[in-house]
Specification:
heterodimer, A: about 120 residues, mainly beta, Rieske Iron-sulfur Protein, three-stranded antiparallel β-sheet, globular, B: about 850 residues, alpha/beta, FAD/NAD(P)-binding domain, Arc Repressor Mutant, subunit A, five-stranded parallel β-sheet, 27 helices, binds flavin-adenine dinucleotide
């Protein structure tokens, strides 16, 4: 995991078994940021912004999980923009991205770090 | 600028405009077109499809527009004044010209037999002619077409399809005497007779006698016999509309037609003639290809070019519901010393003749009847050495083995638009990768369409296989995947991608395969892994709106609803603060529901007896109806009852794209059934079934599949139609483009659905029966399943907290989304649109 300068606070998102493979969920952070959580087929966890940067709707968690040339992806259900789950980049439009967030499996809970890992 | 006036806005006049518009970069010409018909140019070659439901708008060849082009419709030119270089129209308008073009086409010849002008006598040339014919055909039982040539047979087929018992009377000893010989004519007559058309060859029409109502009633024939009839269509030939030229003393051909030279110029150097009105070197051409060639030559000349018209190909291919007839090149073997090779397979219903040069090396022409699939390959070979044994070329297996590499570069693949093989290979080198691109770049295949198989072949032989791969994860097309799922019994996406794909899927293949799995009966669409394949709408059984909220649409079959149920909808909308709107599909849409509200809303709706309306799915939406005989003074059948029966039968059926339907209770068509994927219109004796309509970006009128059906037959046909579509259409392909994509289009569909030519009708019906038997309401199932219900939460850590980004303002007393800080969502240029 990347080393981050400010100390990281982890908050509980949900019990680990609530997050099903390829079915995203949204978590509301105390500062009202929304984070979309995903578990991919290889049991990897990903957390990215839930707000679709193209439309402003908080819907990323409701998109379809997939892959593009091996890169895990999430497609926004709004206008079908495809983002890398790893980097948050919009694969068609490199000026747009989702922030990615630290995420971990901890004592049976999925936890999110409350500071974004930043912008890729 | 110089003034160009064109008289006639038919097919050839239109081609001239197109060519000038594309080529006149220096704006040399100010063009005025005067056309007599009430509309701008349309595809006369495809005129008969108008009776099958193609609209006048679909037939339109489009407008040629520009600041220097003016087209006047509904206006007839009455005189040409060559001295002052003006023309005058019937409205009194006078227009000056520097150059004048006659593109006035021709008019059907009506023989001056007594009674030729009685009511009930028709010709077959314009949309108005067909309108008049269709009206008379409604009440007619018997119709007689006088003339058994190409157009006469086309008219006979049209009458037959209008449900009229049809006779054809031909003066010559066999049908289509201009194009084919006696042997081919005999076979054609047999095949046409098998279709229920009665043919009288060697028969002269002497008189048409009226009945007591004063309408054409009896046709007296030369041999003393007669035919009783309700209507008559004359199709004995055409005459060039050379009356203006005649009055202006231009030189005419010996049998009429405005005489032109190789530059398409008449005896007056400022006046030109093109198309069917022109007489060139002893010939008046009655086909579109030579007319187009003249238009191109004249456009080139008017723009300073040196093109010449040296005559044209008169090959023809006709299709009469399953009977192919083609004649090409020197079909009658008029070339001195010409040799024939004939295959006359009476049992197989095929006749093929090749005409060869006296040394049997060069193809001069030929005739094909019963199976003209070799036409596309053989016609371009005319004038070229034969690539192999002539008999092998016309044996049933021959043509498919003959590749396009056998063609020389100069061979015309598309004779309608004079496109050679070299033009096509050049376009491919420049990047054309599919038939559509070849068509738009070269115009090949855009007129009669008979060369389209050749275009496909040339592409394939250039090493280009049109990619039908679903996406990067599957090299198969949707149709192939449907068959794989069916034959392997695979029931999950994971199994399918492991065995037949690569990677883990995407937003393209996952919903497509979810639909395939659903249409083969795999339980609730949100069970197990299936939930992960669904687009957001299917995943939450509601329609996502721009601010992240959803709309809710309960099913209201046929648009019929009780006051109590209406009140429930009103109460639910009021209690959850939803915006309501009546939809075009005769139901009510409630907008602005948040994800976590959906179960509570549906609990109320299901309690009141509502079911999911599947507004969110690629599936049957609604079957719209008018009130029919229940209330309407004009209704002839119970349209509401049928609409409800159909909507309840096909509800929940997953398909390649959404499906819309409607039922109208009479010919007034208040339910707009012909704008639907399947539409039903009541007749006095049953139901007419139309298929392949849609609104949207490219509106289409549905076309008649079958007429006067009883309700059970109707439902059987719809079962077969829908299942065949579900099995074979591409992803997101609606019924209209799907039908177009079938080889032979609607005819093929009729063969599969009505004649069961593929022998799959029982299978299709069984699949539909299974769907009907296994249908359950998707929303009721979710409400009774805690695991599925658990997914309807806003946040994992705050399941009932509303999404703070969803906010509303009020417009006209209803809640609507507050503008988002990001403004209007940008549309994606690559986003899928309805294909
Ligand atoms: C049912 C049918 C099927 C056909 N099928 C085929 C086929 O399969 N293959 C094929 O090659 N060809 C076919 N044809 C023939 C083809 O349609 C014609 O060759 C073609 O339309 C000729 O074009 P044109 O412009 O010369 O004449 P038209 O298309 O007839 O246009 C002439 C126009 O000029 C107008 N006009 C005439 N006089 C005046 C005036 N004084 N003032 C103003 N306007 C005037 C007319 O109203 C008309 O609109 C078919 C024709 C019909 C009717």
């Amino acid at each position: 995991m990347t080393t981050l300068t400010p100390p990281l606070t982890w908050i509980d998102a949900c019990p680990a078994h609530h997050l099903e493979t390829a079915l995203g969920l949204a978590t509301l952070l105390p500062d009202l940021h929304q984070v979309a959580l995903f578990r991919t087929h290889d049991d990897h966890l990903y957390a990215v912004d839930n707000l679709d940067p193209h439309t402003g709707a908080a819907v990323i968690c409701r998109g379809i999980v997939g892959d593009h040339a091996g890169e895990p992806t999430i497609t926004s259900p709004m206008l079908k923009h495809v983002f890398s789950l790893r980097s948050g980049h919009d694969l068609d439009d490199h000026h747009t991205h989702l922030s990615t967030w630290p995420v971990r499996h901890h004592h049976g809970m999925i936890q999110i770090g409350t500071t974004p890992q930043g912008t890729p | 600028m110089e003034k160009l006036v064109v008289i006639g806005n038919g097919m050839v006049g239109h081609r001239l405009l197109q060519a000038l518009n594309e080529g006149d970069h220096t704006h040399r010409w100010h063009i005025t077109v005067v056309g007599e018909e009430p509309r701008t140019a349309y595809d006369r070659v495809a005129l008969s499809s108008y009776l099958e439901g193609t609209s006048a708008q679909d037939l339109s060849l489009g407008q040629v527009s520009g600041p220097h082009v003016h087209v006047h419709t509904n206006e007839r030119v009455t005189t040409i004044d060559r001295t002052h270089r003006t023309i005058t129209t019937h409205t009194g308008r006078t227009l000056p010209y520097d150059r004048l073009v006659l593109a006035t086409g021709s008019t059907p010849f009506v023989p001056p037999v007594p009674g030729h002008d009685l009511p009930g006598c028709h010709v077959y040339r314009t949309i108005e002619d067909l309108d008049a014919l269709a009206i008379d055909a409604r009440t007619a039982r018997t119709g007689v077409v006088i003339g058994g040539g190409l157009l006469g047979l086309e008219a006979a087929n049209a009458l037959r399809q209008l449900g009229v018992k049809t006779h054809v009377v031909e003066l010559a000893p066999h049908l289509m005497p201009t194009q084919i010989d006696q042997g081919a004519g005999a076979l054609l007559q047999r095949l046409v007779t098998d279709l229920g058309v009665t043919v009288h060859t060697g028969s002269a029409t002497t008189t048409i006698e009226p009945g007591p109502d004063g309408r054409a009633h009896r046709i007296l024939l030369g041999d003393g016999t007669h035919l009783d009839t309700d209507l008559v269509v004359f199709s004995v030939g055409i005459r060039p509309r050379d009356e203006l030229a005649r009055a202006a003393h231009l030189r005419l051909g010996p049998r009429g037609g405005v005489d032109i030279d190789h530059t398409c110029t008449t005896s007056d150097p400022t006046i030109h003639a093109i198309g069917e009105v022109a007489h060139h070197n002893g010939t008046i051409y009655g086909l579109i290809a030579p007319g187009n060639a003249m238009a191109e030559v004249l456009a080139d000349r008017l723009l300073g070019g040196e093109a010449t018209f040296t005559g044209a190909d008169t090959s023809t291919k006709l299709k009469l519901l399953g009977v192919d007839v083609a004649g090409f090149g020197d079909a009658h073997a008029n070339t001195p010393g010409a040799l024939d090779v004939v295959v006359n397979d009476a049992a197989g219903g095929r006749y093929a003749k090749l005409v060869l040069s006296d040394d049997a090396t060069t193809l001069l022409g030929g005739i094909l009847v019963g199976d003209a699939s070799a036409y596309a390959t053989l016609r371009p070979l005319v004038g070229h050495p034969l690539p192999g044994d002539p008999l092998a070329l016309i044996s049933p297996t021959g043509p498919t083995t003959l590749g396009t590499h056998a063609l020389p570069d100069s061979a015309q693949v598309c004779s309608c638009n004079a496109v050679t093989k070299a033009h096509l290979t050049c376009a491919i080198d420049e990047g054309a990768r599919e038939v559509a691109a070849l068509k738009s770049r070269t115009r090949a295949g855009t007129s009669c369409g008979s060369c389209v198989p050749m275009l496909e072949q040339i592409l394939a032989e250039s090493g280009i296989t049109p990619s039908s791969a679903l996406c990067e994860h599957f090299t198969h097309s949707r149709t192939e995947l449907w068959e794989i799922v069916r034959s392997t019994g695979i029931t999950t996406f994971s199994e399918l991608i492991t065995s037949h794909g690569t990677g883990h899927g995407c937003h393209v293949c996952k919903p497509a395969i979810a639909s395939i799995l659903a249409s083969q009966g795999n339980g609730h669409i949100l069970t197990g892994e299936q939930a992960t394949l669904q687009d957001t709408n299917d995943r939450y059984l509601a329609n996502l709106q721009r601010n992240g909220s959803y709309s809710v649409v309960p099913r209201i079959p046929g648009g019929e609803i009780t006051p109590d149920k209406l009140i429930v909808i009103g109460e639910v909308a009021r209690d959850f603060d939803l915006y309501t709107k009546i939809t075009g599909g005769q139901r009510i849409d409630m907008f602005g529901a948040r994800l976590e509200q959906l179960p509570a809303i549906w609990t109320r709706l299901v309690e009141a007896g509502f079911e999911s309306g599947h507004a969110y799915g690629k599936s049957l939406r609604t079957v719209k109806s008018c009130v029919g005989t229940t209330w309407c003074r004009f209704g002839v059948q119970d349209s509401v009852g049928l609409a409800i029966r159909l909507e309840e039968r096909y509800r929940g059926l997953r398909s390649p794209h959404k499906l819309k339907a409607a039922v109208s209770g009479c010919a007034r068509e208040c339910a707009e059934a012909r704008s639907k994927d399947f539409g039903i219109i009541a007749t006095d004796t049953g139901w007419n079934l139309y298929v392949g309509g849609n609104g949207g970006f490219t509106p289409r009128h549905a076309r008649l599949l079958a007429r006067d059906l009883d309700e059970d037959t109707l439902i059987r046909y719809i079962d077969r139609f829908l299942m065949f579509y579900i099995r074979t259409a591409d992803r997101l392909q609606r019924t209209a483009p799907w039908i177009e994509s079938l080889n032979e289009g609607l005819d093929h569909l009729r063969a599969v659905i009505i004649d069961d030519r593929l022998g799959i009708a029982d299978d299709l019906e069984a699949a539909m029966a299974e769907h009907v038997a296994s249908y359950t309401d998707e929303w009721a199932a979710v409400l009774s399943d805690p695991d599925k219900l658990a997914r309807f939460v806003s946040f994992t850590n705050a399941p009932h907290t509303p999404d703070p980004t969803i906010t509303f303002t009020t417009t006209r007393d209803q809640p609507v989304p507050a503008p988002t800080p990001l403004g209007i969502p940008t549309t994606r240029p690559t986003m899928e649109t309805t294909r």
